[in-house]
Amino acid sequence: MSDEYAFLKMLRSRIVHDGARGLFDDVAVLPVGDSRLVLTSDTIVEGVHYLPADPPADIGWKLAAVNLSDLAAKGARPVGCMLNYALSGDAAWDAAFLDGLHEALDRHAMPLLGGDTVRMPAGSARSYSLTAMGEATGAMPSRSGAQAGDRLFVTGPVGDAGIGLELARSDPTASGPLVDAYRRPRPRLAEGTLLAPFATAMMDLSDGLLIDAARMAQASDVAITIDHVPLSLALEKARGASTAVQIAAARAGDDYELLFALPRGATPPVRAIPIGYVSSGTGLTLMIDGAAVPLPGRLGWEH
Amino acid sequence: MSDEYAFLKMLRSRIVHDGARGLFDDVAVLPVGDSRLVLTSDTIVEGVHYLPADPPADIGWKLAAVNLSDLAAKGARPVGCMLNYALSGDAAWDAAFLDGLHEALDRHAMPLLGGDTVRMPAGSARSYSLTAMGEATGAMPSRSGAQAGDRLFVTGPVGDAGIGLELARSDPTASGPLVDAYRRPRPRLAEGTLLAPFATAMMDLSDGLLIDAARMAQASDVAITIDHVPLSLALEKARGASTAVQIAAARAGDDYELLFALPRGATPPVRAIPIGYVSSGTGLTLMIDGAAVPLPGRLGWEH
Question: Chain A to chain B, count of Cβ pairs less than 8 Å apart?
């Protein structure tokens, strides 16, 4: 049992408010006046969630993007966010971080409203948190609504960010679409809004297609079969499309595409790639070239 | 110019949303549906905002209390909060932290809704953030509304937490009311709700009476005279009530009492201690035993 699992178990035993959704969802939901507020918060830690050599503007961008992606999965409209910032001691670094953060926030009309700024003791890893709030006006899909017979889709290919991370690790000056996918993920807010009224289940891909699909299957009490691992041209060009590459892509994290289920026969209202289907039963099956393949021991990024 | 001042200046130049209040207030205000949400966020850092030897339950309590205190200053009703937690690697420590956090949250009917949990690299100072949301249903005093002629009050004595910190620093096992004041500050939520409709200006005392009163004077474009520094019996017993002790108490932080202004002749609807008055002009005057005394070079905790 991991530290975090034990901690969440301890938290769950204390948390009684319905809005917390038992801490099993990516967001909390709070009725405020005649509206519903969707809340999410992510912390990124130097050396854990980003590489110390990553450009600060990309770190700022990513902090915004991962939070916006959680709102996207609920079809929520961004209304405001709060930043907890650990000063770097380097004004140019701080300015570049804010540039990247605001670039991502501004692109999605997300106002930064306040927060707190602290100094860390010398030698400490720095961490940054963003708490994002969105407003849900209509249907709000959870990860637990998938039904036998549904078809499964993603809003884009998977695995690019995983390869991008490998490239950035071996060469901090690496660039190109795969590194961009890792450093500048695009939260699918427009797609989320359009999908929310129709998707029976929806979540963003943060930890990897396999593990996130397995979570959707478990939460929905259904079986999920993935029969297509969509790869980008950039990834195929860099690594080919062997079974090993497809499995690696399906367990790579940080893609931030939306994974969603639609009733059989429904056409997605956004550009999307069919990747499988939902049936009665439990568990996850991965098929490559028409044949079931053994699942890897570690399905994705567990934390 | 401090790091944080430079950072806030940079942020202010980018932040355009009215709800951010130009980052000059302790809270942000967000209209949601037919309601107003009051938002605040505080981060505490090991070795900066608390002593590594502090009992974890007290650290958890304090994180909740400082955020609740910001809501108290607006007369806002707690509606929910999000926690960003750095795992300690010690399950008993984490459990004790959560105990203290929940004790403070439960006492004020503040639901914990979610957040994020991270691991820090070995050797790093840990930090914890809480983002608290409240709902304002009526008048919401700012720090900028004090008027010439107003009388100034606090909801309790000042300086206890400052002495408590000294005692805890020299002896981690120290106890008693002064150490309690430092480790278990009481946010004045009930008082804040009762005062909000009447106070022309209100704020919580986090950095010290002198510096916080100077900030109220500046924000309100008035002069403030403090003619009484209220000391607790515990503090007088420990340190006496000399001019030096009074000045030290007035520049000590972490009290979390409410500082508020009422029109002349109005009676506070809560237990409160009169400490001075507002007049036209600018700046802060401190009078002890009827005579103005020179202000200390550092008015309080600046960060």
Answer: 223
